[in-house]
Please model this.
Amino acid sequence: ICISNATIEARRTSMPAEVPEILSYVETFASQVALEPSGAVLSQSQRWNSKWRFDGGEWLATRFPPRQTLQDRLMNWGEIKCAESELEGLNALYWNTGGQHWLNNSGWNTSQQCCSWHGVVCESGAGHTGAVTRLALTHNNLTGDIGLDFAASTALQASLTILKLGNNRIRSLPENIGLLANLLVLDVSSNSGSLNLPQSIGNTSLVYLHIGNGTMHPPFEGTRLVTVPDSLTALENLTVLDLSYNSLSGPLDPGVFNLPNLEVIDFSLGRLEIAFPENGFTSLKKLRHFDLDYNDVYDLPDNLNEAANLLFFSVSATPGVFHGQLPESIGQLTKLKYLSVTGNYNMQGPIPVSVWNISSLEYMDISYNYNNAKGTWPET
Model:
């Protein structure tokens, strides 16, 4: 089915009563099933190294393709129904976040089946009592607190796996968000105000968590995550952890670095005190992207080489707060493409000679390390 928006709008009034609802469903599927990019927003001056940056949108589209095609869903049109509990949870979200002022609230607060509402994706036969599996309302002027009633929906607790509410004005996450035990993806990046990540987040099944601000330079106008709960260490399936560009402070629980499935860690501009567990990088064998820019970073563990799949490594622009030196084992990272440790005033030397053995490197920046960070060129 290929129908332009103009054609839909021109003919909608002359259609049979049920057809506009189906077309709304088609439009929702087309716009929401492809999860939009949610990676870091780069300034013009930073685009030169964007090819090494993690693209959250691409990662999500690859890892979470729709279980059903549009044809399957239209064939099941009469069978996919929202549970009463789902309607209660969705309506609570609508009223708590000023749904009447959303940029697109098509279908919401009407008698239409909720599977046709803007941003709502339903799937049948997924082994759950509810129908709503994905909710994507990014860039839609949601304003306020999500409220407890949303996560209290027993049907949503069973069915919801993807929740994308980035680029809105959401002020807080519900304390009971942990009731959404099957939640795999949570993106509340680039929202206004300060957010506390509830302790109950550790009761979810998250593999992707993005609460980054999404802007490169201050003043920051998006999400301002205030605290990082130690319950993050319970998310054993977590693969992407992006808390970048926040106003965090204080120590980070070292147990985060023991999560065995992490592929992406981005704490850039997080202003955290970061220390590693005694076993260093032993648990991070799947890690590909590691960004600790603008944090208070203590000595890097000697066994950095155990993160053998690293492609991107950056501990940069941390004036006076990188206390240590690059471990010699960095030369064993045979897949590393991007290395940046620039701007570390207290970085100690020497720069390991082994760095020059990394034949996979495409970009390296070790500039502006003013004190004792020294090194020599290899004989070859």
The helical segments are 5-11, 19-32, 56-63, 70-75, 84-96, 148-152, 154-159. Confidence is low (pLDDT under 50) at residues 1-23, 25-49, 215-220. Residues 19-32 form the longest helix (14 residues).
